[in-house]
């Protein structure tokens, strides 16, 4: 072979090598350029912007080893009864065999059990509808919901028109039963919520609602009720770091009062979800949402000026327990600032305009945070702490 | 960078912009032809057409057009400098970069290109001296590169201009790839196939073959890979990269032997003629496909005027209600932001556009907000990194008073439907949404609600676009062929369906189906039917036979007996056994099948005629639905009422009740 031929062959090999190497580089680049994690917005399924990969939530069983007191309390708390199966014995006891009649429109709703599952039969729809889940702990109410996939395949929810109430049994769900007329069909059975609203609804009653990109909720991986991870994010990381002793954890105590009530407000509503003209005493809807009322209170807004004392939801309520109905404990919290003593210290606020000094029978809550009727069916404590007109 | 637009538009309006676009395309084509050296004119022409197809999207009065001109100028001037090394060449290159740095952000691409050209020039690649002058030294090359780089700093952004250019050309280096998915800056591997991508692949593949079969300068291969990396990194770089590939290929072709004299492989005039014919045919096919809007991913046809999707008239009218608003607007893209800025009330400004967000480091926030708006994540929730999600609070913090959504963004329109943000215009290519708690916007929202009811329930009849185009856009291909362009009307139908105005969407689709039966129209019609059938199933427990058939695939529909088939299908044995009632029911089913077949072709009158003589609930319901969809609301009310009265226990009575209540709330 002549030198020139040899040179040509080597040159060809070099060029071919370069092209192949370049193509390989592209292939590698194209395959591995996705350096982030798939982002899918929505509560409980969001990895956030800096955390890579979905962290698995720790179970209450794992937490109990170190936090026995809180976990034991939580197991009995309403937060652990926010979402239950329709066929749950507690729900069967409350609903099965019972019926409700909407007198205005002549609609009947009867609850029956078939193969261990709860169904509702009605004269508004030709077929019985299964109750898949029940929302609510039963402290205020329990509302049945039915789930299915819409035309686009996304999970949607039917909020039933009839709920169970502790004092009166079955009754119209809030928002239903006011109209004098209506049509038969699914709208008479309840309200069909769009996909996003359906998942948002579930996500406040559950710790995790795994939803894929097509909008289908994986109920086999759903973690019911408000467990540790729902409020203390990153519990699995916390467990993983036990070995090295760092115990990485999002600490509630490090939150500012605003951040703290906003976290509760994620489900119990935040003030910034309302417009300015909605945040008035005339709006009776606010009583349903304690963090909103609290955030409007002078006590909350003025706390930065009274030293180290702090007011947020957890000042009065232990979220691991059912809220106390006795006022004594709450009054004591009021008195930590409103001692009525003078002495020039910042934290000492006047006691009361009506009574100059606190007595044993002083009940701040009765006047400043009264129980308020809501929609004729429910009673809520108004958390907008203020002087009211008599 | 919008200097061209601001100079041309006031002087010559849309025609000026069109002339500019054509001129730029002609200049780029001519410059490319010059590079080809006219050695293989037909082949060169084919390559140039492919290059222009790939880069055509940016050849208009926008900053990106200066990037295209900059790339060609750097290539030509760089080669000239390498060959001649004169001061004028030096000054011209520096001037190009100084201007480029002020008009567009792609100059970093130009600097990469220049370095490749200088590298080749340094190796004597472009030595075409005639007067014996000295070639520029390596030092001169370095000096030129230094001054060109410095010239890019001569703009108001100074050194930050480099950062801007880097962010836009290589966004994956600064933004997580997952946030760029589905945007203009996504990886090339994620871009959907269209004419630009096919052209890019064609040119690249040809170049690779050239590199393999012919001697090629090392600098060209390096240049090829650098540009390919830029294209693969971001699909937005595709026009510039394609142009560079075209220049490389044309230069490579200059070195090919001239056919047929030097060709020995297939040799002869026949080969030359066959090659010319093939190239000529390819060019003609591509041009024809461009003219009639058949290039993959490009449905614009040859015409004159404003893109119908930029028609401002109705949009601007709807915004007069927002004159007194003060705050920001959330826009879903450049078009929405541009139209808002053009027609906008003075107190409202677009909060961000994707490009500005990318430059300002806000791209992730903007993308998250966009995705949350599209997926309906309104309620605040805390993410694992401590940041807050949910669009409501973000819009509140930004003092957002308007949300502007492109009509094609049906997912976002659907997600906004159940919220307190309501559209203040319907039949516009870009839809403005106002907050229903905004007292100043209530009249506009009420007006739009009335319009919604009108198009969905009253006797609104849709007139499809004329083949010749509209007032703002002349469609030359439509004039010649008499075939109207359906894309804009189809987009309107999709928008109406996303707003849950299914009857209105069908009112748009039915006349279109009668004119043309394209796949996209048929698909949209089926989707619409499926959604209505789903509503029926949800509301009453089962869908009507009419909807089920209308939503079914063609194969299923073929299995439904037609009226002509009924007699032949019945066996003598069955005929003996069948009662009068049975044959009546069979006849009804058959006529329903005929009606649906005609309905799917848009022949509503024929469909109605097929059902006239039937009195069963399925036929009555079908007839009522047809009446409503053809704009005869009074007849529809009468028929729905008849179903409720005569077939009280039938599930279709539940549906009829629901529709009646809705209609009676709207109609007097």
Protein topology:
The complex is a heterodimer of chains A (390) and B (668).
Chain A (H helix, E strand, L loop, with lengths): L2 H30 L27 H4 L4 H8 L7 E3 L3 H7 L3 E4 L4 E8 L2 E6 L6 E2 L2 E3 L7 E7 L5 E6 L1 E4 L3 E4 L13 H4 E4 L1 H11 E3 L14 E2 L3 H4 L3 H6 L16 H12 L21 H7 L1 H4 L11 H4 L11 H10 L26 H5 L2 E4 L3 E4 L9
Antiparallel strand pairs in A: 1-6, 2-3, 3-4, 4-5, 6-7, 7-8, 8-11, 9-10, 12-13, 14-15
Helix pairs in contact in A: 9-10
Chain B lengths: L2 H34 L4 H15 L7 H22 L2 H17 L3 H16 L15 H14 L8 H10 L7 H4 L14 H19 L4 H16 L4 H17 L13 H24 L11 E3 L7 H6 L8 E5 L2 H10 L4 E3 L3 H6 L3 H13 L5 E2 L5 E2 L1 H7 L2 E7 L3 H7 L4 E3 L6 E6 L6 H16 L15 E3 H6 L5 H12 L3 H14 L3 H22 L4 H7 L2 H5 L4 H7 L2 H6 L2 H21 L3 H8 L5 H13 L3 H14 L4 H16 L2
Parallel strand pairs in B: 2-3, 2-6
Antiparallel strand pairs in B: 1-9, 4-5, 6-8, 7-8
Helix pairs in contact in B: 1-2, 1-3, 1-11, 2-9, 2-11, 2-12, 3-4, 3-5, 3-11, 4-6, 5-6, 5-10, 9-11, 10-11, 18-21, 21-22, 21-23, 22-23, 23-24, 24-28, 26-28, 28-29, 28-30, 29-30, 30-31, 31-32
Describe this entry's structure for a reader.
- The complex is a heterodimer of chains A (390) and B (668).
- Chain A has helices at 3-32, 60-63, 68-75, 89-95, 186-189, 195-205, 228-231, 235-240, 257-268, 290-296, 298-301, 313-316, 328-337, 364-368, and strands at residues 83-85, 99-102, 107-114, 117-122, 129-130, 133-135, 143-149, 155-160, 162-165, 169-172, 190-193, 206-208, 223-224, 371-374, 378-381.
- By secondary structure, chain A is α+β, with helices and mostly antiparallel strands.
- In chain A, the strands form five sheets. A five-stranded antiparallel sheet of chain A has the order 1-6-7-8-11. In chain A, strands 2-3-4-5 form a four-stranded antiparallel sheet. Chain A has a two-stranded antiparallel ribbon with strand order 9-10.
- The radius of gyration of chain A is 29 Å and the shape is globular.
- The radius of gyration of chain B is 31 Å and the shape is globular.
- Mean pLDDT of chain B is 85; it is low at 563-577.
- Chain B is mostly helical and 668 residues long.
- In chain B, strand 7 and strand 8 (430-435) form a beta hairpin.
- In chain B, 63% of the residues lie in helices and 5% in strands.
- Classes of the chains: A alpha+beta (390), B mainly alpha (668).
- The interface between A and B is large, with 64 and 61 residues.
């Amino acid at each position: 072979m002549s030198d020139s031929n040899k040179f040509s062959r080597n040159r060809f090999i070099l060029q071919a090598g370069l092209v192949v190497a370049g193509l390989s580089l592209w292939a590698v680049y194209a395959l591995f350029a996705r350096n982030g994690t798939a982002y899918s917005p929505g509560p409980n399924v969001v990895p956030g912007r800096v955390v890579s990969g979905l962290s698995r939530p720790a179970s209450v069983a794992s937490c109990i080893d170190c936090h026995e007191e809180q976990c034991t309390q939580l197991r009995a708390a309403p937060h652990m009864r926010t979402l239950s199966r329709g066929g749950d014995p507690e729900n069967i006891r409350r609903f099965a065999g019972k019926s409700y009649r909407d007198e205005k429109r002549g609609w009947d709703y009867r609850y029956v059990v078939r193969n261990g599952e709860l169904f509702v039969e009605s004269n508004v729809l030709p077929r019985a509808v299964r109750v898949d889940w029940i929302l609510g702990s039963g402290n205020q109410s329990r509302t049945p919901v039915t789930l299915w996939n819409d035309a686009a395949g996304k999970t949607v929810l039917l909020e039933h028109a009839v709920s169970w109430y502790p004092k009166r049994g079955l009754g119209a769900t809030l928002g239903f039963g006011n109209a004098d007329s209506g049509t038969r069909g699914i709208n008479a059975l309840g309200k069909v919520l769009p996909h996003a609203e359906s998942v948002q609804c579930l996500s406040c009653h559950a710790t995790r609602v795994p939803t894929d990109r097509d909008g289908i909720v994986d109920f086999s991986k759903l973690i019911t009720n408000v467990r540790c991870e729902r409020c203390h994010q990153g519990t699995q990381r916390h467990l993983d770091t036990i070995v090295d002793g760092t115990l990485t954890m999002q600490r509630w105590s490090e939150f500012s009062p605003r951040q703290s009530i906003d976290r509760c407000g994620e489900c119990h509503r935040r003030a910034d979800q309302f417009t300015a003209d909605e945040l008035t005493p005339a709006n009776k809807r606010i009583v349903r949402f304690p963090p909103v009322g609290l955030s409007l209170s002078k006590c909350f807004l003025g706390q930065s000026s009274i030293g180290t004392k702090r007011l947020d939801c957890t000042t009065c309520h232990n979220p691991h327990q059912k809220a106390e109905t006795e006022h004594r404990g709450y009054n004591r919290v009021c008195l930590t600032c409103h001692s009525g003593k003078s002495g020039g210290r910042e934290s000492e606020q006047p006691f009361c305009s009506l009574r100059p000094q606190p007595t044993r029978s002083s009940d701040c809550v009765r006047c400043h945070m009264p129980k308020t009727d809501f929609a004729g069916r429910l009673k809520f404590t108004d958390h907008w702490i203020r002087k009211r007109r008599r | 960078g919008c200097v061209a637009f601001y100079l041309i538009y006031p002087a010559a309006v849309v025609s000026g912009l069109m002339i500019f676009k054509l001129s730029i395309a002609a200049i780029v084509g001519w410059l490319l032809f010059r590079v080809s050296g006219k050695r293989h004119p037909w082949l060169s022409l084919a390559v140039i057409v492919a290059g222009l197809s790939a880069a055509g999207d940016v050849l208009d009065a926008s900053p990106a057009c200066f990037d295209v001109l900059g790339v060609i100028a750097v290539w030509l001037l760089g080669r000239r400098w390498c060959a001649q090394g004169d001061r004028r060449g030096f000054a011209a290159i520096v001037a190009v970069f100084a201007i480029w740095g002020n008009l567009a952000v792609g100059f970093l691409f130009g600097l990469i290109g220049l370095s490749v050209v200088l590298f080749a020039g340094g190796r004597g690649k472009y030595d075409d001296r005639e007067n014996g002058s000295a070639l520029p030294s390596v030092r001169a090359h370095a000096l030129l590169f230094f001054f060109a780089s410095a010239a890019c700093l001569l703009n108001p952004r100074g050194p930050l201009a480099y950062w801007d250019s880097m962010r836009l050309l290589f966004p994956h280096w600064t933004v997580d790839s997952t946030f760029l998915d589905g945007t203009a800056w996504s990886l090339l591997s994620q871009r959907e196939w269209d004419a630009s991508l096919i052209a890019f692949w064609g040119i690249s593949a040809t170049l690779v073959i050239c590199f393999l079969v012919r001697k090629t300068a090392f600098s060209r291969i390096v240049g090829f890979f650098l540009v390919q990396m830029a294209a693969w990194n971001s699909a937005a770089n595709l026009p510039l990269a394609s142009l560079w590939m075209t220049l490389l290929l044309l230069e490579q072709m200059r070195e090919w032997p001239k056919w047929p004299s030097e060709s020995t492989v297939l040799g002869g005039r026949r080969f030359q003629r066959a090659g010319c014919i093939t190239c000529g045919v390819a060019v003609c096919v591509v041009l024809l496909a461009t003219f009639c809007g058949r290039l993959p991913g490009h449905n614009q046809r040859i015409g004159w005027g404003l893109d119908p999707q930029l028609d401002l008239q109705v949009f601007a009218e709807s915004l007069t209600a927002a004159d007194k608003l003060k705050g920001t607007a959330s826009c879903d893209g450049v078009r929405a932001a541009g139209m808002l800025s053009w027609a906008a009330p003075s107190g409202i400004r677009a909060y961000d556009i994707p490009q500005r967000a990318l430059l300002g480091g806000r791209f992730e926030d903007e993308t998250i907000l966009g995705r949350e708006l599209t997926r309906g994540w309104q309620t605040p929730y805390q993410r694992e990194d401590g940041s807050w999600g949910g669009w409501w609070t973000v819009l509140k913090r930004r003092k957002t008073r308007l949300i502007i959504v492109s009509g094609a963004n049906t997912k976002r329109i659907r997600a906004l439907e159940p919220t307190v943000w309501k559209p203040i215009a319907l039949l516009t290519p870009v839809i403005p949404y106002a907050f229903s708690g905004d007292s100043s916007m209530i009249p506009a929202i009420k007006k739009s609600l009335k319009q919604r009811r009108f198009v969905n329930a009253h006797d609104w009849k849709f007139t499809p676009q004329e083949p010749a185009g509209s007032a703002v856009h002349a469609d030359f291909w439509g004039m010649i062929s008499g075939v109207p362009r359906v894309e804009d009307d189809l987009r309107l139908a999709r928008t109406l369906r996303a707003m849950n105005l299914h009857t209105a969407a069908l009112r748009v689709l039915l006349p279109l189906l009668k004119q043309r039966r394209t796949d996209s129209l048929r698909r949209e019609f089926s989707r619409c039917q499926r959604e209505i059938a789903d509503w029926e199933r949800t509301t009453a427990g089962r869908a009507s036979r009419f909807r089920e058939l209308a939503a079914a695939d063609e194969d299923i529909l073929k299995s439904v007996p037609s009226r002509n088939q009924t007699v032949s299908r019945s066996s003598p044995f069955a005929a003996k056994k069948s009662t009068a009632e049975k044959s009546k029911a069979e006849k009804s089913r058959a006529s329903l099948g005929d009606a649906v077949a005609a309905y799917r072709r848009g022949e509503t009158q024929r469909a109605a005629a097929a059902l006239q003589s039937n009195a069963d609930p399925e036929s009555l319901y079908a007839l009522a639905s047809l009446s409503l969809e053809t704009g005869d609301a009074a007849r529809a009310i009468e028929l729905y009422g008849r179903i409720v009265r005569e077939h009280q226990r039938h599930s279709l009575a539940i549906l009829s009740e629901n529709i009646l209540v809705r209609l009676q709330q709207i109609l007097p």
